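Hello, quick one for you while I still have it in my head. I'm working through a protein record and want to make sense of it properly. Would you mind checking whether the tokens look sensible for this chain? I owe you a coffee for this, so here goes:
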Amino acid sequence: MSHYEKQDETQGIGERATGVWTSLKQAARQRTLTVGRFVGATGISANALTLLGLALNAAAATVVASGWFAAGGAIFLLASAFDMLDGAVARASGTVSPFGAFLDSLIDRYDEALMFGALLIVFSRDQQPVLVGATAAALVGSLLVSYARARGEGLGVECEVGILQRPERVVLLGAGLILTDLLLAPIIWVLAIVTNVTVVQRAIYIRRRLGGKDSEAQALSRPGPRSPDNTEEEAHR
């Protein structure tokens, strides 16, 4: 098998895996929308669910900082369910708004920062400087993944590419907290590395898309060829 055949095969496997994951996320989103219709019928607003999720995440971070990792992980996953449910409630109840989307995105960043902050406290207290560094890198990477998407969309580029988006980060971190001795340290390292790889992926993707737009803009702004008559007329002025 030639190098190019291997490359095509690898790319094909990657595309199939991405397709399967996308299908799973769409199925989960559809189920969440069904639950959202039920919850929305109770009169609870999407913004209230967003703020409730923040309160639960703050509670989860406090529990983890106190050393109760498994309980904190369970609360963290519960809080994240509210994070996913608020958008579904907004869509089901017809109350989607620009401010609601902004508030949801803003609170999501606080949610992540709270949990990573709790882990930084724990690792600092236990004098584990390597894990402190890895956690800090995971925190920065997680925030920049979201920032890269938001900034790209502000420039007119839809950017959902990347290995590790927020739902995947939440599931991994929650599993690591619940199975602390087995998974927490490896998952912290995975998050530290892969979130920052995702940032680079998005930066490259946005650069390519913007490069294409810049080329189109330059082509449109470039003056067309002038006729010989015009050139001759200008020469005699």
Summary: DSSP finds eight helices and no strands in the chain. Helices lie at 3-40, 46-65, 69-93, 98-125, 129-154, 166-178, 180-221, 228-235. Residues 180-221 form the longest helix (42 residues). Confidence is low (pLDDT under 50) at residues 6-11, 231-237.
